[in-house]
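Riboflavin biosynthesis protein: structure, please.
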Amino acid sequence: MKVVHLKYPHQLNQSHEFSTAYSLAVGFFDGVHKGHQAVIQNAKEMAEQLNIESAVMTFDPHPSIVLGGRREKVFYITPLQQKLDVLKDYGVENVFVVQFTSDFAKLSPEDFIQYFIKDLNVKHVTAGFDFSFGQFGKGSMETMKELSNGEYGVTIIDKQSDQEEKISSTRIRNYLQDGEMDSAAKLLGRAFEVPGIVVHGDKRGRTIGFPTANIQSMEGSFIPATGVYAVKILVQNKWYDGVCNVGYKPTFKNPEDKQLSIEVHILDFDKNIYGEEVKVGWYKRIRSEKKFDGIESLKAQIEKDKNEAIEYFASYSL
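Here you go.
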């Protein structure tokens, strides 16, 4: 998959000539959830139909970071590198990452189309019904059609809903904050994942019979609500079942110590994996974090958590 970074005014790799024609899916695509997948799938189908290459255009950072106007802190379901990894898995051939700046935000809809559609040799544009562009979001997908002058085709994807309401990144964020991993996974079409690296911890788990991998998450990743989870972990290109504790280890730590830890007890695993890059897939929140009155009660609870995770994965289906 080819990734091209664009900035307005254009600062392009001079060796990159836009002689290739593209069928483009455009949007922010945080999470690359089922709604986004419908947009991307259409762009891929149009690419095949027109015998041109598929492409996705996304933006970085989130517009609200540049424009302000949101009180709550924005977190990404898929930080940029993770988003690119997911797009590659979906078979996208090209990704344009447009740097969202104050200058870019001031572009008129007409200029956006000229610089980021026509000048890139885009022959078909696909986006969701609510995609807007240009200064103050004045441009809509109807504008995209009106200004095409026959130079590119346009497909507008209708609202994608489940039984409840529109599939959206906001809903997924709310589920993640509440630890509702199965609900998030249904909208994502896959388990929520956090990439990271295995680092040295306090090694207390091995002394009580439950060794854990201490995970330092990739910068910008969102960590779900504290508690104990049934997870899968990707280590050296193989997925293993596990039990993950996210929290502040109240049984051992001073309650004033607010350093969050992510520890995974990997089932049927005994390798030394310090320094390995891993991914943690979050499937089910088993319970909230709590303080135990001693080691034995903690060990008994971990055994219960482990068995619950084993039972969960034995019957799991998305």
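Notes: The first strand starts at residue 2 and ends at 6.
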